[in-house]
Amino acid sequence: MEPKAIATNSKQIPEFKFKCSWVICSQFSLLLLLLISIAASSSSAVIKTLPGFAGELPFKLETGYVGVGDAEEVQLFYLFVRSQRTPERDPLLLWLTGGPGCSTFSAFFYESGTCFLFLNLLCPLHFSVSNYTGGIPPLFINPSTWTQYLNIIYLDSPVGAGFSYSKTQRGYIMDDYKAAAEVYTFIRKWMMDHPEFLMNQFYVGGDSYSGIIVPMVVQEIYNGNNLGFYPNFNLQGYVLGNPVTDYYIDHNARVPFAKRMTLVPDNLYKAAKKHCNGNYVYIDPSNAQCLSDVQAIEELVREINIYQILEPVCKTISPQGRKWGRRSLEEELDVDLNSLLQDDPAFWCRNYGYVLVGLWANNEQVRQALSVREGTKGYWKRCNFSMSYTENVRSSVSYHKNLTNTRLRALIFSGDHDMSVPHIATQTWIQSLNITVEYIWRAWYVDAQVAGYTEIYTNNDFEMTFATIKARNRGGGHIAPEYKPKQVYELLNRWFAYYPL
């Protein structure tokens, strides 16, 4: 099935198609670019210092807003970090966070940018959970970051996430198609304001629920390039981590994954497979045996952390009411700050580290430093699940299928102990694309140790790399860069450099 095109507000961005000599076109394009960039509705500020960090930042940070939608009522907030290597030549990556409704700070502080020292991760800036004593959480520098080799735009999308806001209540009514359209409009306007990056290799990436949105945006950019829309992107591909892709495939894979991980006994799994005919999602209400088997499986995994099955379930989360549904398992919970000061590892919970970014982002000095517009955002949440958001794209597989007919490249990676979007689900939809296995399943390494396994698929000039991030010492979870930052750092560094894993 041909993927549906997303509707964009093309009236606000003029499109130009004409013939001329190379010299005239070049000069005219530069002038036109300058005029359009001046006229574009956006604002930005260069941030040299941040509350909690001693001295000037060792990288160039920009924050700002870009207006999108009808009458630009929606104002999307972004962070932009220039590569610390050669920003004029390094790839430019637009990064989206999942949810839908999670702030880009999740990526900036816990995936590619910063982390909390309590977990001893390798990131360029980090919070120190174990040493926190109150006030503005201190930030510390750490040199291992994706921005060592990438220019990265971190976007608060959809509106309502992070510091993005709408001037009208109507603007907050959102769905998958509208969210993708606004991201597409954002990046076109952002590029007009930053013409120096037009020649850089351009990629779109994200994790979790952005697995629905990213392929839609990439398809729209690719189509716009072919139609001669302005600006023309040097689009090279896309990156997705533990991506939500297809409601049925993703959820259905949880049962065989639980069996593989010995969370479910063989006899129960065989019975469920027989009685449900391999369908554990859309169950016939009259099929009592299937319903009984699936309920028994759900009961066995009820107290398992499905985002990383080796990690404990947070003690603040009651096991009652936990279901297979994605939203019910992703609710952001308040954590008692006293829990942060517990030295006993038995009290450890990954959510504790998220409290510090909330304290930091809700501090007035921080908001002023980031040039957040006053009065546009009340209490900041790392993930806002109270939005008026309709998930109306149940599968993005058709977009991936369409993109296999391009010259683009894709990197898909999965933490291998994530049960919310199991790696076997991702492998299932990749195989459904009917593309050729170019390099069969093999190990890839970091520090002479197996970091995971990889396989490469091709279709003429299209190439897709799939890689797992192996679990070790609480590793390989749902947001893989947060659990295994060094391994994912090496994975991306090699892939962007066209280097074998």
UniProtKB/TrEMBL annotation:
Keywords: Carboxypeptidase, Hydrolase, Membrane, Protease, Transmembrane, Transmembrane helix. One of its GO terms (molecular function) is acyltransferase activity, transferring groups other than amino-acyl groups. The keyword Disulfide bond does not apply. The keyword Protease applies. One of its GO terms (biological process) is proteolysis. InterPro entries: AB_hydrolase_fold, Peptidase_S10. The chain crosses the membrane at residues 20-40. Belongs to the peptidase S10 family. This is Peptidase S10, serine carboxypeptidase. It comes from Dillenia turbinata.
